[in-house]
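User: Here's a protein and a ligand (zinc ion). What would the complex look like?
Assistant: Let me lay out the input and then the predicted complex.
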Amino acid sequence: MPAVPKKKTSHSKQGRRRTNLKLKLATLVPCPHCHQLRPDHHVCPTCGYYNGREVIDVGVKDRKRLERDQRNQQGR
Ligand SMILES: [Zn+2]
């Protein structure tokens, strides 16, 4: 005979256990290169930089947007 629970788990106990089964919001930090918010410990999706160097090419269209965003930030 296999291991069997001695008692039925009550709805209250089941609910308390499932309190911790929830999704959390990703931690967003400002990118040190372009200052846009990016997920922590991830390559920046806006400028493609990670750890001070360009890791991925995000394309000319996005680079133009990045330059415009940086100009707008300097203007403030
Ligand atoms: Zn960036």
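Summary: Residues 29-75 form one domain.
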